[in-house]
TrEMBL record:
<feature type="transmembrane region" description="Helical">
    <location>
        <begin position="85"/>
        <end position="101"/>
    </location>
</feature>
<feature type="transmembrane region" description="Helical">
    <location>
        <begin position="278"/>
        <end position="299"/>
    </location>
</feature>
<keyword id="KW-1133">Transmembrane helix</keyword>
<feature type="transmembrane region" description="Helical">
    <location>
        <begin position="240"/>
        <end position="258"/>
    </location>
</feature>
<keyword id="KW-0472">Membrane</keyword>
<feature type="transmembrane region" description="Helical">
    <location>
        <begin position="121"/>
        <end position="143"/>
    </location>
</feature>
<feature type="transmembrane region" description="Helical">
    <location>
        <begin position="173"/>
        <end position="203"/>
    </location>
</feature>
<feature type="transmembrane region" description="Helical">
    <location>
        <begin position="20"/>
        <end position="42"/>
    </location>
</feature>
<keyword id="KW-0812">Transmembrane</keyword>
<protein>
    <submittedName>
        <fullName>Uncharacterized protein</fullName>
    </submittedName>
</protein>
<feature type="region of interest" description="Disordered">
    <location>
        <begin position="338"/>
        <end position="357"/>
    </location>
</feature>
<feature type="transmembrane region" description="Helical">
    <location>
        <begin position="54"/>
        <end position="73"/>
    </location>
</feature>
Length: 357
């Protein structure tokens, strides 16, 4: 009640907290998003895509955790306006990874299943789920307490959001975000987690053989998987989806414009001292990791073009993608050995002979 009686000492909003929502953090987020789109579009390697996604998710988690701690501590260090800007650019990894998941779902699942390590799958699923939980908690908590949130609640009425127009923050944002995160949970994250856990279980369920018979069976399974790998070549079954990449790129540009207009519309007061401190410089330096990863993916894509054309000429267009259950069936259903086939054939012949008699 006391805070509502105070008047905001700024014409617009208090100075922007650069450690949470400064220009360096925002640029790093935007660039990583663009690099992720490029890698997803041109790389047939799920391992490369996972390696590209993981640092991006970790950075997003760190920003969200910092915003939660600084916003809801007993001595808050950020304003509602800071939290709003942070929410805008921390949503970007969600959009990128949800779209990435949809795109990867159309790739050859058999190749994905037999060429993907559980070390790639499990950490990404775990940390992507953590990112979802933290983002949902942060978003709903901020919008639920938008009147009293942060270091200068008397200035919260000046907070603005740009979403196809300049809008004030009201309780409707809390309700709307609760619906959005609920839909994401039901339609994206629960199915993703279940499929990922199923695939991880499949990859880790094979135990070491304990006797000669099991060793022979293991060798047959390895030969079976080797044959499947040849049929499910990443080069043969991969097609760069440029159209989808351009669409995602355009959506990202629009959202970046919304984010930057939100910064402008909040009319932040000038910050004291230089904004280019550790919190802004470090995110830009670590861009070297995704830059190198993307450069490698593009280089391998360009070098592999002749091989893909030759493979495509021999094998035709990629086969229709199978579902996850059918893929698991292909891996588990090992063809019988030659001696088993001979034995079954002899039994069938005996049966036919007895029927004729």
């Amino acid at each position: 009640m006391a805070s509502s009686a105070l008047s905001c000492q700024f014409t617009g909003s208090p100075p922007l907290n650069t450690d949470i929502a400064g220009i360096g953090v925002r640029i790093s987020t935007y660039v990583q998003a663009f690099l992720s789109i490029i890698t997803i579009t041109v790389s047939p390697s799920l391992t490369d895509i996972y390696n590209q996604a993981f640092p991006y998710v970790i950075m997003n988690i760190s920003v969200t955790v910092a915003a939660l701690v600084l916003g809801f501590s007993s001595n808050p260090q950020i304003t509602l306006q800071d939290a709003t800007v942070a929410w805008y650019f921390t949503v970007i990894p969600f959009v990128i990874h949800i779209i990435a998941g949809k795109k990867l779902a159309h790739r050859n699942k058999l190749h994905n299943a037999i060429n993907t390590s559980s070390w790639d799958i499990i950490p990404n699923i775990v940390f992507l789920s953590i990112m979802y939980i933290l983002s949902a908690a942060f978003t709903l908590a901020v919008f639920r307490h938008h009147e009293t949130f942060g270091i200068s609640p008397e200035c919260n009425t000046a907070a603005r959001v740009f979403f196809f127009g300049t809008r004030t923050i009201t309780h409707r944002w809390f309700v709307g975000m609760a619906v959005v995160y609920g839909l994401l949970l039901a339609m994206v994250f629960i199915p993703m987690i279940l499929k990922g856990l199923l695939l991880a279980w499949l990859l880790s369920s094979m135990r070491k053989p304990e006797n000669d018979e099991e060793r022979q069976e293991a060798e047959r399974q390895q030969k079976h998987i080797a044959e499947l790998k040849k049929k499910a070549s990443a080069e043969v079954n991969f097609e760069a989806d440029y159209r989808s990449g351009v669409v995602v790129f355009a959506v990202l540009v629009v959202w970046i414009v919304f984010t930057e207009l939100t910064v402008v519309k909040n009319n932040f007061a000038p910050a004291e001292g230089s904004i280019w401190q550790f919190g802004q410089i470090f995110p830009l330096i670590i861009l070297a990791v995704p830059l190198l990863s993307t450069a490698r993916a593009v280089t391998e894509f360009v070098k592999g073009a002749p091989t893909r054309r030759a493979e495509r000429a021999r094998n035709g267009k990629p086969k229709e993608r199978e579902g996850l259950i059918a893929t698991i069936g292909n891996i588990i259903n090992v063809p019988p050995a030659e001696d088993e086939k001979t034995e079954k054939g002899e039994i069938e012949e005996v049966k036919k002979s007895s029927e004729n008699i």
